[in-house]
Design goal:
The chain has 466 residues and is an alpha/beta fold. The protein has helices at 30-43, 53-62, 79-89, 104-112, 125-156, 166-178, 195-204, 223-231, 248-251, 267-279, 305-310, 316-322, 339-354, 362-370, 376-390, 416-434, 439-446, 450-459; strands at residues 22-26, 46-50, 67-71, 94-100, 117-121, 185-188, 213-217, 232-233, 245-246, 256-260, 281-282, 291-292, 296-301, 325-328, 359-360, 395-396.
């Protein structure tokens, strides 16, 4: 493979109405090439033919294809060179190699170098059409990942919210509408759904986008330090305060303050936060003079906040002040059709980091699509990354997945609170098992602090939580 940087993936080849995809058939045997092309045309594909490897290299450099179907043994430019040239010109184009019976080792080598699949000659029409259909579908998924990321990056400056399902499209439309305003937003959703990504999208689409975006996780900071962290403190305000310090409200001046896990805060802090939102000013710990602040506040929670209000664990007046515009990030189990897109997105990210391209076989993908994903997108990303690292070949199978690979979906408890607790219990247990009891590493994978992880393990009675 060339060491030069790859060009950006083009969009899938344009297709007339009713056309399944665009395929380049490469074979120096005229009869074989013509017969294969005829079968594909009859099935509804747009087909181009190349009589040699050299001609194929020129075609893939000049026009887009969804799939290149090439013979391996050709001269002087063989199928391996066609594969290399295709991946250089259009990395998302899927390459299927054809090889004669008895030379399967050539096909294995081609897959190791990045080919999508292989066909052993002679092959049946049904087998050919099945392989081509799967390759075109993968090319389409890659194109949608690229398109959706590009649209979102252009609109919000972000590329990590991926999805085509109705719940995600509805969420992004609400984000688009509320982002330019200064309204306070409360984002709800289970752990691992991407609440901070939504908050960053709101900031990036606002008039404050050139000012700071400052996140703070309330569960990761002790109650005694949270007030100082957000409001700042005067010198000598408490033991260890050797100098005055600005809080995060002031650091976010002109921009956005994202307060994550707001339901983990104590009533005393909630009262001071309410005052800051109502008055537009804060008081540093140890000072009596107020400080004016111009900050848009976005808060989030993975708890049922209305239940916390009903149980008087969260102030009702603060809830209404925060939830001027409520947004809900759907869990992954409610948008299963996004799983293939997300898998491709994470595999592409893995390829960019490592230079090694991997793909999931259909059985592995089917297992991922039927799982309930208690850890949501974060759990899926972690599993795909592990599977890509553990697999020895270019194709990831269920065997390559971590030992706690998800099986069939389990029934959820009756109430919403019980369901959330059970989902969190399963996600934490799986992470601790993967990390062989290393709570620090498990906390890193789950995206929380070690203190937060220990506290939740204790509350959920998970072994190791004390």
């Amino acid at each position: 493979m060339s060491e030069q940087p790859r060009p950006a993936d083009p969009q899938p080849a344009p297709r007339p109405s009713g056309q399944l995809g665009k395929v380049l058939v490469v074979d120096d045997q005229k009869n074989m090439r013509a017969t294969t092309a005829l079968v594909l045309r009859d099935a509804g594909y747009a087909v181009a033919e190349a009589e040699s490897g050299a001609a194929a290299v020129q075609r893939v450099a000049a026009e887009p294809f969804d799939v290149v179907l090439t013979d391996v043994r050709m001269g002087p430019v063989d199928g391996m060179e066609v594969l290399r040239a295709t991946l250089e010109s259009a990395p998302a184009t899927q390459v299927i190699v054809m090889t004669a019976y008895g030379t399967i080792e050539s096909a294995v080598e081609a897959i190791r170098r990045g080919a999508y699949d292989y066909l052993a000659k002679p092959f049946q029409e049904d087998e050919l059409l099945l392989r081509i259909a799967k390759a075109v579908e993968r090319r389409r998924l890659l194109g949608e990942v690229s398109l959706l990321a590009g649209e979102f990056r252009a609109r919000y400056g972000l590329e990590h919210i991926v999805g085509r399902s109705a719940p995600i499209r509805e969420l992004l439309e609400r984000v688009r509408r509320v982002a330019p305003t200064d309204s306070t937003v409360l984002i709800s959703g289970e752990s691992g759904t991407g609440k901070e990504l939504v908050a960053r999208a709101l900031h990036a689409g606002s008039r404050r986008s050139q000012k700071p975006f400052v996140p703070v996780n309330c569960a990761a900071i002790t109650e005694t330090l949270l007030e100082s962290e957000l409001f700042g403190h005067a010198r000598g305000a408490f033991t260890g305060a050797t100098r005055a310090r600005r809080g995060l409200f002031e650091e976010a001046s002109g921009g956005t303050l994202f307060i994550d896990e707001i339901t983990e805060t104590a009533p005393g802090f909630q009262a001071k936060l309410l005052r800051a939102l109502q008055e537009g000013e804060i008081r540093r710990v140890g000072e009596s003079m107020p400080v004016r602040v111009d900050v848009r506040v976005i808060a989030s929670t993975n708890r049922e906040i209305k239940q916390a209000v009903a149980e008087r664990r969260f102030r009702e007046d603060l809830y209404y002040r925060l939830a001027v515009v409520p947004l809900r990030v759907p869990p992954l189990r409610e948008r299963r059709e996004d799983v293939p897109l997300l898998v491709e997105h994470f595999l592409e990210a893995h390829a960019r980091r490592t230079g090694v391209r991997k793909r999931l076989d259909p059985e592995a993908l089917a297992r991922l699509e039927t799982y309930s994903w208690p850890g949501n997108v974060r759990e899926l990303e972690n599993l795909v990354e592990q599977a890509a690292a553990l697999s020895q070949g270019p194709v990831i199978t269920p065997v390559d997945m971590p030992f706690d690979t998800p099986g069939p979906e389990q029934p959820t408890p009756g109430t919403l609170a019980e369901a959330v607790d059970e989902a969190e219990r399963r996600a934490i247990t799986a992470a601790v098992q993967r990390c062989q009891g290393d709570l620090g590493e498990a906390a890193r994978q789950l995206g929380v602090s070690s203190t937060t992880l220990w506290r939740r393990m204790k509350r959920l009675a998970i072994p190791g939580g004390g």
